[in-house]
Amino acid sequence: MTYSDWGGRLVTFPEDRARHYRESGMWSDDPTGRRLHQIAHRFAERTAVISAEGSMSFAELDRRTDQIAAGLIRLGLNRLDPVIFQLTNRQETVLAWYGCIKAGLVPVATLAAHRMHEIGHVSRKVGAVGHIVEVRTAGFDLVEFAREHATGHPSIRHIITVGDESGRDQPGVTRLEDLGLETDPVAARSLVEQIEGQTDPLDVAAFQLSGGTTGVPKVIPRIHAEYWNNALLYAQRLGWDEHSRVAHLIPIIHNAGISCGLHAAHSVGACLVLATADAPAAFELMARTEATEVLIGHGHYQAVLTHDFDKARTSLRRVVLSGAKVPPELFDRVDDGAGHWAGQLFGMSEGLLTVTPLDSPAHARLTTVGTPIASDDEISILEPGAENELRDGGVGELCCRGPYTIPGYFDAPEHNQNAFTSDGFYRTGDLAAITVIDGKRYLSIEGRIKDLINRGGEKVNAEELELLLLEHPGIANAAVVAMPDPRLGEKACAYLVSVDGEPLLLKAVQEHLAQLGVAKFKWPERLEWVPSLPHTNVNKIDKKRLRAEIAAKLLAEADAHGVVA
């Protein structure tokens, strides 16, 4: 077998490191679909997935995804064809993911909320051949969007829908629910095994997306050798087994959804309880299915503090918190010393995952994000902008490399020159420190260098949004900064300078972004019109000052509202 380097656009691991990861057991020779099949054979009758749509055993999941893979192949899709995913958390999403993986296709993990600005760029970058969309998502017609996107696209040939219960035929559209139904399971398994026989461990298994530090998101290639193992290491760190029931609320097609939810649960034969972002409904599903584990992102911190969470916590053993500094009251809510354990996760689509070890003292679980999950993970805290390593306790840029941290973004040679150190460490852009507790070195996240706004786990790139705002003829200058939000952590606030002195309404600015096809979660949610933007003594826009200004304004407004109330 010979892996594809995508015409030189894929950055491969240096041979010495690749050889070490194989020898240490961090990498596997088996393709991802085969790993699922092995687990399904071992735990055939155990429940693999529970969602609002129903449940499915491992045997059923394995058999149906074999058929879907066969259907995709017979539809004309070829091994390594990229397929755009725009799906929410539902059982068919799991079927679509594994069906594509088994067919040797490469899922491209976009969001249902993405629009033409993001999808158009990413699909052309990877040469997407297929586009899988959900029929009903928050009032937006993704099927029509997929048709519009395919018009004039150089490579899109197939649109596949999920959730179309009408059964009606649409020209140029295939229902996922129909794929492979006529295929004998034995024949489908044989076809999948043929594809697996052609798959090299270094082949791309999936494309994830970065939060986007400059312009639209960068493409992150994850390979078969490491992707399933990455999830397995996470599950093992948390002590999961076939008796675990793992609840997941955030988008499953995110890297966190795959590595910490779908693949992680299934790597040990555990059941995935696939919930949605609607907290009351998610907690109800968790209670009904007796979920034992859950990952809580920052967007659900407030919900955990409500009584709705009480019904879910009865069966919970472990709660992993991720996305922002954990308030002590939240930690105490989920870690009560009565059988409920709380820890933290820090991770990125580019690779590195750190998770709290189960035996860590409460102080370490509250104040740090744990330790790397793989013995071959390497982390280094460097002086920002340089390659000088800092001593433990010093705050600098977190840099990392390891068996599942990418050696380079896909088709981004210029960006890669600055995103990696001279010895191959990925520059995360996060400010961090090593904190020593009881003789163990834990990682603490202290902020970030990158100009990103973390809106409930979704990353909004300030520079990208500023450039889009400046396309409006009425805006002369723009600076986008994070403003604090009690529920989501941060939202985007745009400081704007008007061309003619007349400010625009927020609705007009949002309509401008909608016309450009920008995902709604990126839109600014507050405008501050100013005569000019402040600058530092080196003539850069003083965003630190703007962030402090909007935080103070929000605090004053809250105080005033409290007095009135």
From TrEMBL:
Keyword Membrane in record: no
InterPro entries: AMP-bd_C (IPR025110), AMP-bd_C_sf (IPR045851), AMP-binding_CS (IPR020845), AMP-dep_synth/lig_dom (IPR000873), ANL_N_sf (IPR042099)
Residues in AMP-dependent synthetase/ligase domain copies: 38-410
AMP-binding enzyme C-terminal domain boundaries: 464-539
GO biological process, any: fatty acid metabolic process
PROSITE patterns: AMP_BINDING
Protein name per UniProt: 2,3-dihydroxybenzoate-AMP ligase
Protein source organism: Rhodococcus jostii
